[in-house]
Amino acid sequence: MGVSEIRWGILGAGGIAKRFAASLETVEGARLVAVSGRSAERLAAFAPARIYADAADGSSAHASLIADPEVDAIYLALPHSMHLRWVLEAMRAGKPVLCEKPAVLTEAEARQLADAARGSNTLFMEAMKCRFVPLHARVRALIDSGELGRVCELTCSQCVDYGEDNLRYLVDPVGGGALYDLGCYPMSWIEELTQGNEPQVSARANWRDVSGGRVDWSGDANLDFGDVCATIHWAGDSAEYDCSVLIRCERGSVLVERAHRPERAVVSCPGMEDEVIAAPYDPDDFHGEIAHFCELMRAGATESPVMPLVATIRNARLIDAVRAVM
Description:
This protein is of the alpha/beta class. It is built from nine helices and 14 strands. The strands form two sheets. The protein has an eight-stranded mixed β-sheet with strand order 8-9-10-7-11-12-13-14, with helices on one face.
């Protein structure tokens, strides 16, 4: 692409967009220039970026931002059910897209998105930020070294208490619920560590009635890949906070703490003292994915080797498989 400074536009003005904007200030050669949404008042928090506001549903504002010739890259921070539409709009305009997780709601949508990215030679990456923090590389290097033997079992949890304030998109009967919002993090670890067979799946969920339908609020699933068994627990109403991934191998295990934004892991092997791997953020949990995306743009790449399109497709396929039986 041959650009030095990458000028960003953000679709959406929620909490995740604000955290992204704050992190963007720490990335060399990147700058926020525009933001779009429904509320001009909320968008004012992103000053001095240009504001595109549309009080109806945000559509004209998002379209105007995408068309802005001074916007080089899009960070899409809209509700899950709106992702596919606006990713496709941005790619039609030739704008690279970093899209919040989960990128899409189904495997079919993921394949549509991937086809559009490949067909237009436009960079797309799902913002699975846990893959871009320093600890992730340390854990993957340990697993890939074979020191602990092959991976045998995964126990993954993403259990928090949402509370009752500011739920908004979480109670959307189309794209809401805890599996999409929380479960996609541990599912990404499962996807990454179980390359190969597709699983036999069993699952259950606890549902919450919402306007227009219902959404899952907690649940668990077992995924049997043949050579690896994975268990996933997710909850938006958990009395205990547990966001961890336990990777059991033939000769030891790795417990990744706060696996959606990890900084610490504990390695345990029989007959040996536990080893702590500490790898703090540099400087926050968004920085790595933003810097990586900017590097891809400067290199003219159309896909990330860390979070490729096939990973987004398989994540969606695994979530589809769980949703089909819960």
